[in-house]
Write a structure and sequence with these properties.
Layout lengths: L41 H5 L8 H20 L3 H15 L6 H12 L1
Helix pairs in contact: 2-3, 3-4
Length: 111
């Protein structure tokens, strides 16, 4: 897994074939949201709960995805944590520029 500030999301990977839980070294952290809907199996796990039609639905969605985030954290699954963090940030309106800082904190906690 790459955590360089200059890293770029690689759209050339065969996302339909890659299980990032089994191959986390292929994951490239990107402080933007690029690729969040491509990274499996997390996409399939998180996407059903990513709802924001109303503020109440967004709060419920955010709470569920945050639970998933905590479970990924318990499993020391950084990729899952990062994938769950994106919709949680979106749904809770947290400043996206904090993503890199949060990612570093998470890595320190699980290492």
């Amino acid at each position: 897994m790459h955590l360089l500030l200059e890293s770029k999301f690689d759209y050339n990977l065969n996302f339909s074939e890659i299980n990032f839980r089994k191959s986390p070294e292929l994951y490239v952290y990107d402080h933007t949201e690029r690729g969040v809907l491509l990274i499996e199996p997390y996409k399939s796990e998180i996407l059903p709960f990513w709802r924001f039609r109303t503020p109440e639905i967004a709060r419920e969605s955010s709470a569920k995805i945050y639970e998933m985030f905590l479970e990924y954290k318990k499993q020391k699954d950084f990729v899952g944590m990062d994938m769950a963090l994106v919709p949680t940030i979106k749904l809770k309106s947290i400043n996206p520029k904090m993503c890199l800082f949060i990612a570093i904190i998470l890595l320190l906690q699980i290492s």
